[in-house]
Amino acid sequence: MLLIPGFGILAFSCSKDNDEKRESPGNHRDYSNPPVIIAVDSLNLRVYKIVSLPRSGTPPFTYSIDSLPFDNNPVKDNLRFGSHFVYIKDAAGHCSERFDFAVIPPTINLPPYFSVEMPIPDSITVW
C-alpha cells in the first residue's frame, strides 16, 4: 500500500498472482516472456540505473522503485542509503520479479596524518 497525500491509499501491485486474479478466464495473460532485471548499476554516489535482460519483455518499459508509481526512466537518483527494491513492467503488462538491492554509503578512509585522538597539553602558555 502507498499513501499519497490528497489521494488516500493506493494499492501497489506488480505480481503475477494479483494480475491473474483480476483477469477473466478467457482473457488470461501470457507470462512466458516477462521482463527480467539483471542488475542495478551505480552511476554515481546515489544515482542508479536499472538494467534488464536483453530480449526479455515487450518494450517500452516502465520502472518502479520502493512501491512508487511507475515511470519510463530507468535511472533513479537521490536514493537514500539503505535497502531498496525495484520492478519493471512492460508494454504488455508483464511484471518482473522483485529485485532487491542496497545503496551503501562510501567508506571514508582518513590518511594516517589525521589523528582521531586529540592530545591534551599539560599546560598552556599565554603570551
Give a written overview of the molecule.
This protein is mainly beta and 127 residues long. It has a domain of 74 residues: Immunoglobulin-like (Sandwich). It contains one helix and eight strands, in the order E-E-H-E-E-E-E-E-E. The strands form three sheets. The chain has a three-stranded antiparallel β-sheet with strand order 3-4-6, with no helix packed on it. The radius of gyration is 24 Å and the shape is rod-shaped. The relative contact order is 0.19. The N terminus is likely disordered.
Beta-strand residue percentage? 25-35%
Average pLDDT level: 77
**Gross geometry:** rod-shaped
- Tally of helical runs: 1
Strand order of the largest sheet: 3-4-6
Given helix and strand content, the structural type is mainly beta
* Radius of gyration over C-alpha positions, nearest whole angstrom: 24 Å
Distance between the termini: 68 Å
Most strands sheet: 3 strands, antiparallel
Sequence of secondary-structure elements = EEHEEEEEE
Number of beta strands: 8
The name of the CATH topology of the domain at 32-105 is Immunoglobulin-like
The CATH class of the domain at 32-105 is: Mainly Beta
Uncertain segments: 1-11, 16-28
Helix-residue proportion: under 10%
The CATH architecture assignment of the domain at 32-105 turns out to be Sandwich
